[in-house]
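Weekly modeling sync, notes
Attendees: AB, CL, MP (scribe)

Item 1: holo prediction request
CL wants a bound-state model with 2-phosphoglycolic acid before deciding which constructs to order. AB pointed out that an apo prediction alone won't tell us much about the pocket. Agreed to run with the ligand included and paste results into these notes for async review.

Input as submitted:
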Amino acid sequence: MKIRGVSARAILDSRKEKTILVSIQTNVGDFSASSPSGKSTGKYEAKSYNKSLEEDIKAIKQMADYFSEEFIEKFEDLRRVEDIADRQIGANTLFALESAVLKAIAKEKKKEVWELINSSAKKFPTLAGNCIGGGKHSNLNKKPDFQEFLLIPESKDVEKAFEINKEAKKEVKETLLREDSKFKGEKNDEDAWAVSLNEKEALDVLKKTKLNLGIDVAASGFYKRKNYNYKNPVFKRSSEEQLEYISNLIKNFNLFYIEDAFDENDFESFSKLLKRFPDRLIVGDDLTTTNAKRLEKAIKMKSINAIIIKPNQIGSLIKMKETIELARKSNIKLVFSHRSGETDETMLADLAFGFQSDFFKCGITGKEREAKIKRLIEIEKSL
Ligand code: PGA
Ligand code: ZN
């Protein structure tokens, strides 16, 4: 496959904010792909754009001639794409470009994108869906300090799990309308219910679904001057107090999944939590930012047993693959994840299945999120 032309433009994501769409013209047709964008981004994520989205659009146009020299036919050839794009574009633009390239290779090989990664992939990831939201993803004044409260049905059948989550999310709405006097059905950035409850009250509501529960504390978002600064209700917790508080929540609500319970620099507190709860998923997101070096540190310090994989946190799919391989070697579970600002792009589903992710964290409803879950179901049905 040969790339004959490359261009990019800004489109609006689910938050109505600008993100990038990259298009390529090849000998087998034209292909486009877009990148999502995060809001509660980790400090160690790669920059979304080199200087700005507009500058990335200009930069990518100037690369077109270089691409035309290359013959690209497999996933590993993305390395050559990266050599050309080297540091001229940011992570969002690179991810969109590489996604478009994967689509073109798949077309030429008459394969699905996931088959380019692992043609014998079989196992489907477990769905983890954001049902109630707070933190930076909610615009309410009074809201949970934690960012996400997740439902994680056990079913390995993706279509069934999707139905279970949608049904549970409806039930949760009914409960919220009864129990949260301020709630009128508001939604947050990820189409989860935006409530004014605190985290315990939110978990009390979710407990009624009888599904496995998870939280994304996104703790870096409210960590300042050595304290976790809770607003609902106002309360400061030191790292030790945070460890005790999270431990109590895990016990009281039998939490199955705990993401970013501490600040993104605090590998040690993650280690303490994992030591106490080795049978729960202790997940790094802002802690690890899909970055192999940070994962290496987390492995050495025994900080986590699961890692969020967000392709645009690192941009390069080759680097993302290195992170995945390191995780696999060390028995760290993979959680492929959407971003809070999403597009209709479904590449995430192919990557998650191709790399045999253990979990797929992609919301429950909203067309951008459902598009990815539906793509996963489509793959399921094709096998
Ligand atoms: P983000 O949040 O996409 O806004 O970074 C998602 C998450 O923290 O998991
Ligand atoms: Zn997170």
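Recorded for review: The chain is about 40% helix and 20% strand.
Action items: CL to compare against the apo run; MP to circulate these notes.
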